[in-house]
Specification:
Structural class of chain B: mainly beta
Strand content of chain B: over 45%
Number of helices of chain A: 0
Distance between the termini of chain B: 36 Å
Number of strands of chain B: 11
Order of helices and strands of chain A: EEEEEEEEEEE
Helix content of chain B: under 10%
Number of helices of chain B: 0
Largest interface: A-B, 18 and 24 residues
Radius of gyration of chain B: 13 Å
Oligomer: heterodimer
Structural class of chain A: mainly beta
Strand content of chain A: over 45%
Shape of chain A: globular
Largest sheet of chain B: 7 strands, mixed
Shape of chain B: globular
Radius of gyration of chain A: 14 Å
Chain lengths: 114, 112
């Protein structure tokens, strides 16, 4: 069964510190892997999208990495800000010929405190 | 350019009542989706419409119906609401099924 597992479930860090969120998936083969940020009470917003042939993608202070051999991805946040407090969701698109939907992880809840 | 809009933002229903959640997008996208999000469960796909005139079941379709009214609008109907349908509902759209999805702000539904 296609699954996406994220760790940790939640994380608290001090403002200005770095952190790394993990995503392990069993979806194979896959088309692309996405990281979304979801602020409380809002819909998810895309941060990065990587195809299976890419191993890193940056968006400002957010850097996603992908290791297709070990089926792992990580999202690194540099110099965290209070506004980074949100849930971060890892999403994998299976590579199928049909309209197979995305496979969502349950998310990591990040709290950045002053 | 509002992106994806959803109405209502909040709704409280009694068990057995019916209602329709509305979704509209102004990005000329072909594909639209309905998800529900429950604590500790992540987003789960209810139904999707790959293109105007087509709809398909997702992971959790029981108790729901959908209508792709036109290219812009995709509605979700609960015919007889149950407490298990208490959730936050998100609509999303994408240019095509394989492309990046853009989400609406969500509808928080409580069924008592």
């Amino acid at each position: 069964k296609n699954q996406v597992e994220q760790s940790p479930q939640s994380l608290i860090i001090l403002e200005g510190k770095n952190c790394t969120l993990q995503c392990n998936y069993t979806v194979s083969p896959f088309s692309n892997l996405r990281w979304y940020k979801q602020d409380t009470g809002r819909g998810p917003v895309s941060l990065t999208i990587m195809t299976f042939s890419e191993n890193t993608k940056s968006n400002g202070r957010y850097t996603a990495t992908l290791d297709a051999d070990t089926k792992q991805s990580s999202l690194h946040i540099t110099a965290s800000q209070l506004s980074d407090s949100a849930s971060y969701i890892c999403v994998v698109r299976p590579l199928n010929s049909g309209n197979t939907p995305l496979v969502f992880g349950k998310g990591t809840r990040l709290s950045v405190i002053a | 350019n509002a992106g994806v809009t959803q109405t209502p933002k909040f709704q409280v229903l009694k068990t057995g009542q019916s209602m329709t959640l509305q979704c509209a997008q102004d990005m000329n996208h072909n594909s639209m989706y309905w998800y529900r999000q429950d604590p500790g469960m992540g987003l789960r796909l209810i139904y999707y419409s790959a293109s105007e005139g087509t709809t398909d079941k997702g992971e959790v379709p029981n108790g729901y119906n959908v209508s792709r009214l036109n290219k812009r609008e995709f509605s979700l109907r609960l015919e007889s609401a149950a407490p298990s349908q208490t959730s936050v509902y998100f609509c999303a759209s994408s240019e095509f099924v394989r492309e990046e999805q853009y989400f609406g702000p969500g509808t928080r539904l409580t069924v008592t």
